[in-house]
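Researcher: Structure for this, please.
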Amino acid sequence: MSEQYRTGVTRSSASAGRVRRGPRSPAEARGAVRRVLSEQSHARGAACEPDTLSDALLVASELTTNAMLHGGGVTGFDVEVVGENLYLSVSDHERTRPVALDPVDRHGRHRCGGRGWPIVCRLSHTVLVSDLPTGGKRVTAVLPLPTGCRERVDRV
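Model: Predicted structure, token format:
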């Protein structure tokens, strides 16, 4: 059994005032991750380790921020625990793949950004980037979970 959090498509300003499901900011994405892991931990009777929660929150923040800054906005967000892993997916409008930037530009100046993608890749077991049929892309980060916050599988 897995817990899920899914959103619909981001609405344009013409739909202002309507209720929109799902995260509209990195803070809301972190809240969704926190809820899913808390529910999973409660169901299993064991709390997630603080480092695991911190890693998951950081990856959710980075993926959501990257979609907002470089992908034209968040068009979808999913978080789900399946077996031994947490799946975090963020969709946006842009098909261009994320890239790691050199921390120093060609003039020798230090960049103020460009560290989010390497952080996501380092904290995740697997990162998948796929094109969406309607345009844009979906980035899915898979983070391993310790026993306390993942589904237990009884082995015979």
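Researcher: Any notable elements?
Model: The mean pLDDT is 81. DSSP finds three helices and five strands in the chain.
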